[in-house]
Amino acid sequence: MAKIGRPGLADIERRRVWDLWKQGQSFTKISEFLGVAPGSVFSILRTRGGIWFPKPTSAPRALGLAEREAISRGLAAGRSIRAIASELGRAPSTISREISKNKGRTHYRGIDAHERACRKRARPQRLKLQKNPVLTNYITARLQRLWSPEQIAGRLRLDYPNNSRMQISHEAIYRTVYLHKVRKILPHNIHHCLRRNRSIRHGRSYSTRGQWRSKIKNARSIHDRPQEANNRTVSGHREGDLIIGGTHSQIATLVDRATRKVDLVQLKDRSATHLTAALTHYLSNRAIDDLKTLTWDRGMELADHHNLTRATGIAVFFADPHSPWQRGTNENTNG
């Protein structure tokens, strides 16, 4: 059947995306395997909120494409229903129902009949919240109050111990939230009320470990930092990071490890070019003795650290990935 718009991935490749996703593969791994962009993988998974679904299969005794094509050829040749049924080893009533459900003897086409049967095969069931608006309102109100689905399911068992219509599992709530793009039962973007704030659901085995990430070139490790910086005995050794405001405003914070003095640098954006220029302009007005080291996290906003060192003479070091405690002075100050 013809499809409008850009073709995208073939059906067999789209199914492969879902199978790899069920295995716990990341966007990057799936995109590398299929040779497409990670965004294309995400767009496929987002249609169902990342919830894997099995490929619909027909019953063992259901008519297949080859049999429907044989029926179409038999009708075109003017053969009777009984003759076609005898050739296929089917009951005449089966062939008769197949023809009557697909536009009759004159307009029956095997391919059209098979595609129609595939579309009807899924027969999606209505979710429990679609059939019970009272329960839907109950759950929506508590999700918006940042209750977890486990808390809601447990509270329902206490509030309605003898009412099965007001009972639902936390798994059913999760599925309803993530299937919003398809079913549209709960309010838009209700997933922001969940703990992890994800737009699609990730399986337990999902991991980003080993994925390609943007890496800072020639980054010096925090373990190479001078001992006087670790001991907090001399001022001039700073820890830095960004604070992002609710209106997308950005401020760079620089905290001295010894004196705990905080310097704030206002930023227009958090691009590497602008941050380097802003820090260079700010630190260039400082005393030379006050510029020793700067320890940052692994954010790409300081990817141009070599330009900062060349302009100000300050040595830049980077903490280990996923190790905020190595920059505890700055983390606590920002908090």
Silhouette: elongated
Number of helices: 16
User: How are helices and strands ordered from N to C?
Assistant: HHHHHHHHHHHHHEEEHEHEH
Mean pLDDT comes to 84
Low-confidence stretches: 1-6
- Quote the beta fraction: 5-15%
Strand order, sheet with most strands: 3-2-1-4-5
- Rounded to the nearest angstrom, the distance between the terminal CA atoms is 56 Å
- Helical content band: 40-55%
Evaluate the radius of gyration.
31 Å
Structural class: alpha/beta
Could you give a short account of the major beta sheet? 5 strands, mixed
Number of strand elements: 5
Describe the structure.
The protein is α/β, with parallel strands linked by helices. The chain is 42% helix and 9% strand. It has 16 helices and 5 strands. The chain has a 5-stranded mixed sheet with strand order 3-2-1-4-5. Helix 10 crosses helix 11 and helix 14 packs parallel to helix 15. The N terminus is likely disordered.
How do the helices and strands line up, and which of them pair or pack?
Elements: H1 11-22, H2 27-34, H3 38-46, H4 65-76, H5 81-88, H6 92-100, H7 104-107, H8 110-121, H9 133-144, H10 149-159, H11 170-178, H12 180-183, H13 227-231, E1 237-244, E2 250-256, E3 262-267, H14 272-283, E4 293-296, H15 305-312, E5 315-318, H16 328-334
Parallel strand pairs: 1-4, 4-5
Antiparallel strand pairs: 1-2, 2-3
Helix pairs in contact: 2-3, 4-8, 5-6, 10-11, 14-15
